[in-house]
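Re: the 212-residue chain
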Amino acid sequence: MTDTPFVFEPGGFLLVVSGPSGAGKGTLVERLLRTCGYCTFSVSATTRARRTNESEGVQYEFVSREEFDRRRDEGLFLEWAEVHGHLYGTPAAPADAGVRAGHVVVLDVDVQGGASVRVARPEAVSVFVLPPTIDTLRERLSTRATDTADTVARRLAAAPNELAQYREYDYAIVNDDLDRAAARLIAIVEAERARVRRLRERREPLPTRSAS
């Protein structure tokens, strides 16, 4: 009688990562993507200008407002929101295709986008990233040199309302130490991949041993 092992293939899911600007969610997402090959990044479309450290199609797809409006009107976005005067949207088709292929599709979105995704895809897993203090957030925004003073002021003004939304998420991570926070995020993803409802069983016979 041939014994057969249990072999499980984890199913895919959407991973929503949110938090105020300066909390470090982008850096944590980068760590996750570098560490876990089964994770893929959902590239959002945005109408804001590209920063010097960004590349087209990597962090975002940079489009005109007219093109964004066309896609939105055609229902091509899983979620979209206007944040600090700019539009952001998550293309639905590639995100859903990634999940069907068994990937963890990572969405780096603001709290508005996170709320929309949880409504559209209630099975999504959501993680909120918090800074250790508001002063730390202020320091990070002021020293990263990617935003104007007015933009920094708007982001800081919005931060208290954004931070209050962490209770709506499945998990919360305080980014007080980057290595520790990244390890927590990876642990969350690994645990969610092991949920029984996502596992697909594949039975394979053990190799036949030749008689000696």
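The first strand starts at residue 6 and ends at 10.
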